[in-house]
């Protein structure tokens, strides 16, 4: 199998033609950390960067040492600006962004009526697709200000592949839909005539809507639609402009995934959708890749060694009677001379044991205290320290075997993806022992992104 193409991140970040980098992927794969690390690396290489995150976990603020992020870009302190770069960060405030649109495109009286409308408040706070649409709006605003060299976007943590791109179409379809046109009809006719038209010509429709939605809710919707009528076209126009901006050569999409089957399946769908939408894909960031500094020891050999330690063979037993066999004293051995039947042992014979007198207590008599000066050997657990060391070693070998199985599984999953998408460049980032919570951690992730360095850090480096 041909090796996968390597994604070279630094030329992408250094290219002045690259103005937008969009990190997309399914939830929980490290998009926020990747976006922040890319922004930091680009800033320390001389570019003026703003990172826009839509992640509700708010880890980006913690990593960058900012107490809180909001709808206004804030400069990040502690960044090496010797190359002339800057790093700013912000978090999308969905409702505030919607309010800013209303305030910018409506006169004060109409804006006040819209902002106070109950239906608008519900729509701006939680309508399906509003977050993704407002992300597009905010991206368009940032790009229109032309204040930053590079905008890095952390897309919403949605499992549905490209809600970030689909939301403008869905919201536009909602605003142009039949329901909106029905509700807008009275306002277009005007005054009492309009209400008469609605009551007479569409009494059945509004009766059904009133029962389903509630009379007051329907009235709030009608008021909202009437106030927003002049703005509907602007939503679609701006969404279309931002959509074209994402298709432009100055934009680069990075798909972020983990080396797991489900995550790479989602990544494959992202790749296909981006190609279908003519979006410029820069490559795949394969995050949290596991490694080992002892990969020469296979899982099979590690398990075999662990089994040998846990179930020792005869060669691993204690010495037994080897010390007695090798002793010059042959008492009790097969080489001892046995007396003939009925013959008394010769007390003067060399190597013979004297016959104990009847008065002498037997060494094995019950209740007889043991002589502390006697050289008797106490019975102890068999090789307890050695066995504990063997058990620890066996446990470590089994852990290594599990790690090697994990590495093999990740490699198979990665190879399956690259075989199906050989055109996609890939860079790998090692699984870190803990969460990234400061600029030093983001800087290390950025270095790994740029150098395709999946191995663990060298302690001596």
TrEMBL record:
Residues annotated as domain ArsA/GET3 Anion-transporting ATPase-like: 18-289
Superkingdom of the organism of origin: Bacteria
Signal peptide residue numbers: none
Pfam family, one: ArsA_ATPase
Sequence ranges of Basic and acidic residues compositional bias: 310-319
Cross-referenced InterPro entries: ArsA/GET3_ATPase-like (IPR025723), ATPase_ArsA/GET3 (IPR016300), P-loop_NTPase (IPR027417)
Biased composition (Low complexity): 332-352, 367-376
Biased composition (Pro residues): 353-366
Region of interest called Disordered, as start-end residue ranges on this chain: 310-388
Name of the featured protein: AAA family ATPase
């Amino acid at each position: 199998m041909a090796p996968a193409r390597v994604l070279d991140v630094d030329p992408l970040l250094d290219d002045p033609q690259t103005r937008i980098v969009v990190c997309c992927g399914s939830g929980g794969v490290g998009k926020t950390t990747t976006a922040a690390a890319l922004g930091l690396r680009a800033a320390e290489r001389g570019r003026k960067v703003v990172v826009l995150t839509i992640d509700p976990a708010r880890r980006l603020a913690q990593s960058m040492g900012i107490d809180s992020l909001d709808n206004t870009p804030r400069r990040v302190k502690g960044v090496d600006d010797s190359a002339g770069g800057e790093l700013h960060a912000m978090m999308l405030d969905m409702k505030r962004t919607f309010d800013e649109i209303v305030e910018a495109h409506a006169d004060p009286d109409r804006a006040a009526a819209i902002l106070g409308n109950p239906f608008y408040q519900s729509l701006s706070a939680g309508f399906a697709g509003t977050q993704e649409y407002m992300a597009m709006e905010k991206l368009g605003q940032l790009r229109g200000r032309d204040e930053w060299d590079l905008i890095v976007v952390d897309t919403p943590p949605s499992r549905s592949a490209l809600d970030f791109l689909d939301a403008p179409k869905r919201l536009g379809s909602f605003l142009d839909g039949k329901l909106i046109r029905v509700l807008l009809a009275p306002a277009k006719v005007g005054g009492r005539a309009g209400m008469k038209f609605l009551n007479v010509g569409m009494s059945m429709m509004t009766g059904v809507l009133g029962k389903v939605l509630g009379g007051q809710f329907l009235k709030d919707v009608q008021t909202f639609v009437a106030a927003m009528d002049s703005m509907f076209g602007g939503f679609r126009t701006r969404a279309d402009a931002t959509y074209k901006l994402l298709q432009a050569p100055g934009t680069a999409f990075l798909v972020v995934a983990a080396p797991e089957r489900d995550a790479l399946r989602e990544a494959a769908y992202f790749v296909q959708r981006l190609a279908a939408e003519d979006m410029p894909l820069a490559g795949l960031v394969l995050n949290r890749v596991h490694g080992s500094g002892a990969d020469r020891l296979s899982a099979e050999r590690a398990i075999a060694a662990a089994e040998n330690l846990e179930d020792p063979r005869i060669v691993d037993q204690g010495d037994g009677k080897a010390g007695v066999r090798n002793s010059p004293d042959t008492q009790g051995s097969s080489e001892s001379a046995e007396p003939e039947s009925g013959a008394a042992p010769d007390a003067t014979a060399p190597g013979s044991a004297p016959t104990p007198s009847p008065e002498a207590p037997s060494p094995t008599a019950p209740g007889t205290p043991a002589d502390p000066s006697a050289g008797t050997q106490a019975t102890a657990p068999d090789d307890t320290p050695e066995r504990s060391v063997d058990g620890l070693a066996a446990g470590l070998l089994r852990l290594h075997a599990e790690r090697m199985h994990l590495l093999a599984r990740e490699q198979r999953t990665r190879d399956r993806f690259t075989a199906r998408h050989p055109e996609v460049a890939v860079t790998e980032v090692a699984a870190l022992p803990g969460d990234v919570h400061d600029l030093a951690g983001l800087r290390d992730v950025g270095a790994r992104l740029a150098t395709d360095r999946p191995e663990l850090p060298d302690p001596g480096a």
